[in-house]
């Protein structure tokens, strides 16, 4: 009985210590980069692998697969730092067009070379898009957070540049 009583407070103390030490050790990383996508063949970085089987104007049910470039800047010759690899089914029956994005940012240069972030969420063509960072690997192991992206350019035709800010907590 005596040992039971003395055990209980120390367990509570231990749980309290774990909770507070996790809170104080967390860090936030802010990344800023640009995704460059080319829909034109040859050298397309994104392809439609399934077309919509309905007459839905937004292409409900179509599925794209992409392996886009991650660059430091918006210019085509700025430093390549990784890839944005994923899939995007069109998931809106009655406009505006919306995609369920499931992708990995795979870093291949710089401080985060070899690390990755997994992003899931809804994308539209309207304004800034916010999506969740649900996981990461390497230096981003146990990551969570969010990305905000805004459309920069759609010219020349079939070439898209999108600016990303990513906020990562670990
Ligand atoms: C496609 O990529 C190859 C290899 O990088 C390059 O030589 C060629 O010019 C590119 N073609 C177009 C149309 O961009
Ligand atoms: C989807 O439709 C486009 C336009 O009609 C066509 O060029 C393309 O080959 C189709 N893709 C698939 C995977 O069926
Ligand atoms: C990134 O890491 C890989 C694997 O360690 C290495 O082979 C490659 O040279 C690195 N790239 C750069 C640009 O540092
Ligand atoms: C954030 O903190 C964790 C735990 O201390 C560490 O492993 C990780 O490398 C840090 N992340 C960055 C991006 O500095």
Describe the structure.
- With 170 residues, the chain is mainly beta.
- The protein is 14% helix and 49% strand.
- The protein is built from one helix and nine strands.
- The chain has one helix at 2-25; strands spanning 28-38, 46-50, 63-71, 80-89, 98-107, 116-124, 129-137, 144-153, 159-169.
- It has an eight-stranded antiparallel β-barrel with strand order 1-3-4-5-6-7-8-9.
- The two termini are 41 Å apart.
- The model is unreliable at 1-22 (pLDDT under 50).
- Bound molecules: 2-acetamido-2-deoxy-beta-D-glucopyranose (4 copies).
- One 2-acetamido-2-deoxy-beta-D-glucopyranose binds at residues 25, 27, 29, 139, 170.
Put simply, the count of helices is 1
**How big is the Rg?**
21 Å
Ions, cofactors, ligands: which are bound?
A: 2-acetamido-2-deoxy-beta-D-glucopyranose
Derived structural class = mainly beta
Range of strand content? over 45%
Total number of beta strands: 9
Mean pLDDT: 89
Key words describing this protein structure:
1 helix; 170 residues; mainly beta; binds 2-acetamido-2-deoxy-beta-D-glucopyranose; single chain
């Amino acid at each position: 009985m005596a040992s039971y009583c003395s055990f209980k407070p120390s367990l509570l103390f231990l749980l309290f210590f774990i909770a507070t030490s996790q809170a104080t050790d967390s860090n936030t990383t802010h990344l800023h980069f640009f995704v460059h996508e080319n829909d034109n063949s040859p050298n397309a970085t994104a392809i439609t692998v399934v077309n919509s089987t309905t007459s839905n104007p937004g292409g409900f049910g179509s599925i794209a697969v992409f392996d886009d470039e991650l660059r430091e800047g918006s210019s085509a010759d700025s430093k390549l730092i990784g890839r944005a690899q994923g899939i995007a089914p069109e998931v809106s029956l009655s406009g505006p067009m919306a995609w369920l994005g499931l992708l990995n940012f795979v870093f291949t240069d710089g401080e985060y070379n070899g690390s990755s972030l997994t992003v899931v969420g809804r994308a539209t063509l309207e304004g800034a898009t916010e999506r969740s960072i649900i996981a990461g690997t390497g230096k981003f192991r146990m990551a969570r957070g969010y990305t905000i992206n805004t459309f920069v350019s759609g010219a020349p035709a079939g070439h898209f540049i999108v600016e990303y800010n990513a906020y990562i907590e670990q």
